[in-house]
Amino acid sequence: MLRSATILILCLFSICFSEAQFLQTEIKLPDIGKWLDKKNGEPANWLGLKFQHKELLEPINVIIIDSFSKSRAEAIRKLITECRKEGYSDREGHSSGYSAEIDTCRLSQLPDENKRALSNRNFLFTNNHGRIMGPEYYEDKYIFVGAFSRESFRLFSKTLHVYKSFTIARNDFCEKLGRGHIYKIIGEYNLENSENNNLITTGDHDGEAILLYADK
Fold first, then answer.
1. Residue 71 pLDDT
2. Do residues 174 and 212 make contact, with C-beta atoms less than 8 angstroms apart?
3. Distance from C-alpha of 196 to C-alpha of 216, rounded to nearest angstrom
4. Is this structure's pTM higher than 0.70?
């Protein structure tokens, strides 16, 4: 499993914490919405394309915490710069205009250009891509959230892109950012946004958002 196999709880401030201890003693998070939202405020559903004959909801699966930036602009600039360094550039060919909720505030997608998202490959190839929303300033820290997914190009599909995985894209993005010099993986946060019933699914999503923490 991801929790036991790929995530290491890091030592911050020279003290080792378990994930639960770290969250309780060092980081207090605001209320975070479960879903990537469309312009009308409803959960994004892969532009209406069905997966296994079910509506596919797009979960928030990344939370990024920055206690060091002195302004919203600095926090955004730092994050986008690191994303680009690790292969997740602002690329065309993706739907846009999404938002997410942090502490009851609705925050728009970064980057905010039309038909663009952060992606590790051209949209004509299988790629991991995502939208980052925020930040919201909460208790002396800037909070971003992200929704990342893996897709394949399919010419005769309604959306031209078909869903492959939420987990693969989430893990790849966080592992890439976590190997840099600013952001570190510190654990997971259960958003309880895994769904699978007769009508709705979140594919392979496990309900957890990976936590990335800027340590400078």
1. 97
2. yes
3. 39
4. yes
